[in-house]
Amino acid sequence: MTGTLVNIAAIIAGSIIGMIIHDKLPKRFVQIVFQAIGLFTLFIGVSMALKTDHIILLIMSLVIGSVIGELLGLEKGMERLADRLKGKLKLRNERFSEGMITAFLLYCMGSVTIIGAIEEGLTGKPTLLYMKSIMDGVSSIALASAMGVGVAFSVIPLLLYQGGITLFASSVGEYFSDVVVDELTATGGILLLGLGVNILEIKKLRILNMLPSLVVIVVLVYLSRLWG
Asked: pTM of this prediction?
């Protein structure tokens, strides 16, 4: 998982820079950076969501996945994990949980994450993940300047998610067809749209509870192909 480890290092380095900058920036600059990130997240979400060719499957995956996530309480579980880390490290950052969750979703929902992790799993070449590391490192500077140290701790779920895809792809990666990747990308795009809404504080959406949609869409795509 070389690509994922490099990705983690870039995010931590960017987060450190962001926290240093935060102490020197007036609050209004932090706010405008935050708004810019929210708008960019909406843009990326729209561009990804438009990749779908199976709108009904996309809707079904979001509905089913959201219900599963709500039953499992994923959002509350992640918040408890973040609060536990915050308590053990004796951190006073009020936005620790928000920073950790927001950064994780932003770094993990893109198509580059899925395709890059699959590429490394199949070929051992983390080229795309290296490119992603540069982008995430720059993004983490802006995020950490607005949200603080929680952004750096997003590398924990990132390791599990992105690294897990790499290991999974090394075993069964040949089953990841272009259709599956496109629908995964589209589903992730919808989740990024919701994340953008959260960042802009338009409305609080429980995006983490919708994450099972990424598994459901894969199942639905294969079932649809089996049933013709």
From this structure: 0.79
> Residue 93 phi/psi, 5° resolution?
-65, 115
Name the burial class of residue 206, with classes exposed (0-12), middle (13-18) and buried (19+) by CB atoms within 10 angstroms of its CB: middle
- What is the rounded distance in angstroms from the CA atom of residue 127 to the CA atom of residue 175? 21
DSSP 24: T
C-alpha angle 210-157-132 in degrees, rounded to nearest 5: 95
Tell me, what DSSP letter sits at residue 152? G
CA 191 to chain centre: 9
Instruction: Please report, in angstroms and rounded to a whole number, the separation of the first and last CA atoms in the chain.
Output: 36
> What are the mean pLDDT values of the chain's consecutive 10-residue runs (228 residues total)?
92 92 76 82 88 92 95 86 76 77 82 80 84 88 84 90 86 74 87 87 88 90 84
Q: How far apart are CA 196 and CA 17, in angstroms?
A: 23
Rounded to whole angstroms, the Cα distance separating 83 from 89 reads 10
